[in-house]
Design a protein that fits this description.
This protein is α/β, with parallel strands linked by helices. The protein is 23% helix and 30% strand. It has 6 helices and 14 strands. The strands form 3 sheets. Strands 1-2-3-4-5-6 form a 6-stranded mixed beta sheet, covered by helices on one side. It has a 6-stranded mixed beta sheet with strand order 7-8-9-10-13-14. Bound molecules: fe (ii) ion (FE2). Fe (ii) ion binds next to loops.
């Protein structure tokens, strides 16, 4: 397996390139329009064929490059079925599996709360478990829940009942990090995440999330309609 974590500066987004080295077939998770040329260069230079561009959710802070990638490479676009996007080729249901090449399987997991249709993805390989948690679980933080039908109560259940029941060694790769951190583990998040560690009760979490008082993302009015059309 080849695995690369790529970063887009403006929105602090992580894009993940994963490929099966037997068949040289690759996927990109949460690709960003600003870095589409960089990503294509990397795919090309590694001799890979891009098969799928996959989003975790309808992003509010950046535009996905899924449509551009499909136009240039012929890859398929995949994402949460609950988004009901006609532009996607594959609409995941909970527990669907996507085969990458000969050797890799990506499992789609319904993880609502940041948005009501958000999905995360799990990749298991050689005893390692990699969780692509989108904006549901961030490193020492979590995604906001104050727009796009977000719900702090739902996010609490997602993190506690799905993520924190995964094995402690599961590596958490989020869609964003704003503090130069690359990944965490379920063990560390259960212990160290001050917004939602193992001890935090649902009422405390909801009141913290209700009082974040964040500004809307700068590009929300452009990003959401564009992403509802796969970024085109
Ligand atoms: Fe988001």
């Amino acid at each position: 397996m080849l695995f690369k974590q790529l970063f887009e500066n403006e929105s602090s987004t992580y894009t993940y390139l994963i490929s099966c080295q037997e068949k040289q077939e690759a996927i990109l998770i949460d690709p960003v329009i600003e870095t589409v040329n960089r990503d294509l260069k990397i795919v090309d230079s590694l001799g890979l064929q891009l098969k799928y561009a996959i989003d975790t959710h309808i992003h509010a802070d950046h535009i996905t490059s899924a449509a551009a990638l499909r136009e240039i490479t012929g890859c398929k676009i995949a994402g949460p079925g609950r988004d009901n996007l006609r532009c996607r080729d594959i609409n995941f249901s909970h527990n669907d599996e996507l085969i990458i090449g000969n050797t890799l399987k990506l499992k789609a997991i319904y993880t609502p709360g940041h948005t009501d249709t958000h999905f995360s993805y799990m990749l298991k390989k050689n005893g390692e478990e990699l969780l692509f948690s989108g904006d549901a679980l961030l490193i020492d933080s979590c995604g906001r829940t104050d727009f796009q039908s977000g719900s702090a109560k739902q996010l609490y259940r997602t993190i506690k009942d799905i993520f924190y029941k995964m094995s402690d060694n599961t590596k958490v790769y989020p869609a964003h990090d704003y503090n130069n951190k690359s990944y965490s583990t379920i063990f560390d998040q259960k212990r160290d995440n001050m917004l939602i560690n193992e001890e935090i009760e649902v009422g405390d979490f909801i009141s913290k999330m209700d009082n974040l008082n964040l500004d809307n993302p700068k590009k929300i009015d452009i990003s959401v309609p564009k992403n509802n059309n796969c970024g085109s």
